[in-house]
Amino acid sequence: MPKISISEEIKRICPKLRLGCIEASVKVEESNAALLAEIDKKLESLQQSLVIEDISKLPAIEASRKGYRACGKDPARYRLSAEALLRRIVTGK
């Protein structure tokens, strides 16, 4: 597994930043009906429980947006991938 490190500059700007890495062996197979049903169930749950205005207030999203700002990036222009995905789910895309 590759070593992950955070530069001193980023540590200074975002002292609570934590990174992780997942390594996995993957076998590509035909779609599994049970898995697809579980994904659909989760999507429906998210659509019913979230509204667009509340996504940026989720703790992980809010913390990441603060980190973006601290590094000089506008989180509305350079949206987090997790935030963008949640927004697409909530709007039915």
Order of helices and strands: HHHHH
Oligomer: single chain
The helix content is 40-55%
**Biggest sheet overview:** none
Descriptive notes:
This protein has 93 residues and is mostly helical. Helix content is 53%, strand content 0%. It has helices at residues 8-13, 33-49, 52-55, 59-70, 81-90. The chain is flat, with a radius of gyration of 17 Å. The model has no long low-confidence stretch (mean pLDDT 89).
Feature tags:
5 helices; mainly alpha; 53% helix
Topology:
Layout: H1 8-13, H2 33-49, H3 52-55, H4 59-70, H5 81-90
Describe the structure concisely.
By secondary structure, this protein is mainly alpha-helical. 53% of the residues lie in helices and 0% in strands.
